[in-house]
């Protein structure tokens, strides 16, 4: 387990601290603005990351919520139960993933409806001749046309939300001590390292999206929706009693059952 510990130590220093949770939202907004500015200043040379067929996009970004969900599920379950020793309290915390799934589905569906509502079908990418008979993106593509509408960046939204959610949930490591249980220590460390690298991938691909794809307004709206979803949950709703609650950050929780009525 020494190599895993050596890998986890610098990652904990970088990611598991309150300053990271404070500054990451601003950092993502800065990356979006910086990448968009570089894109606007002039045509960027083609690169591997400018292709939608790059492996990170195909195998990670396209499945971003699935990766985030299935790695956070055991991490939240194990760490929260270890601290609270309460099954209902742990299930309550796991419900954050249900909230995230609803946010992902509702927002991406809304983006598709907006693109349909604001778009038109054209006969070529030059957008010069309209296909009047095709009234939706699906009909347009089925008819061999090219749909052009306000395409809010789903990648900017989802990568923002996933990165912030992971960093929020990793805050539990401030108070979790697994030194007396080597097996638990190994499992938590493995999940933490995997989540850390996943976060780095999300941030990197978020920047690549800002650098190579979408118009500025589309990326701005996507990023702001992702920030709003994070803020509305972790900075507002999860502070209320009738909510999944925040990750345990008080050592006293390890000896008390969560009070759902406070």
From TrEMBL:
<dbReference type="GO" id="GO:0036115">
    <property type="term" value="P:fatty-acyl-CoA catabolic process"/>
</dbReference>
<dbReference type="GO" id="GO:0006641">
    <property type="term" value="P:triglyceride metabolic process"/>
</dbReference>
<keyword id="KW-0472">Membrane</keyword>
<dbReference type="GO" id="GO:0022604">
    <property type="term" value="P:regulation of cell morphogenesis"/>
</dbReference>
<keyword id="KW-0812">Transmembrane</keyword>
<dbReference type="Pfam" id="PF10261">
    <property type="entry name" value="FIT"/>
</dbReference>
<keyword id="KW-1133">Transmembrane helix</keyword>
<keyword id="KW-0378">Hydrolase</keyword>
<dbReference type="GO" id="GO:0005789">
    <property type="term" value="C:endoplasmic reticulum membrane"/>
</dbReference>
<dbReference type="GO" id="GO:0045444">
    <property type="term" value="P:fat cell differentiation"/>
</dbReference>
<dbReference type="GO" id="GO:0007010">
    <property type="term" value="P:cytoskeleton organization"/>
</dbReference>
<keyword id="KW-0443">Lipid metabolism</keyword>
<protein>
    <submittedName>
        <fullName>Fat storage inducing transmembrane protein 2</fullName>
    </submittedName>
</protein>
<dbReference type="InterPro" id="IPR019388">
    <property type="entry name" value="FIT"/>
</dbReference>
<dbReference type="InterPro" id="IPR046401">
    <property type="entry name" value="FITM1/2"/>
</dbReference>
<dbReference type="GO" id="GO:0140042">
    <property type="term" value="P:lipid droplet formation"/>
</dbReference>
<dbReference type="GO" id="GO:0030730">
    <property type="term" value="P:triglyceride storage"/>
</dbReference>
<dbReference type="GO" id="GO:0010945">
    <property type="term" value="F:coenzyme A diphosphatase activity"/>
</dbReference>
<dbReference type="GO" id="GO:0035356">
    <property type="term" value="P:intracellular triglyceride homeostasis"/>
</dbReference>
<dbReference type="GO" id="GO:0019992">
    <property type="term" value="F:diacylglycerol binding"/>
</dbReference>
<dbReference type="GO" id="GO:0017129">
    <property type="term" value="F:triglyceride binding"/>
</dbReference>
<dbReference type="GO" id="GO:0008654">
    <property type="term" value="P:phospholipid biosynthetic process"/>
</dbReference>
<keyword id="KW-0256">Endoplasmic reticulum</keyword>
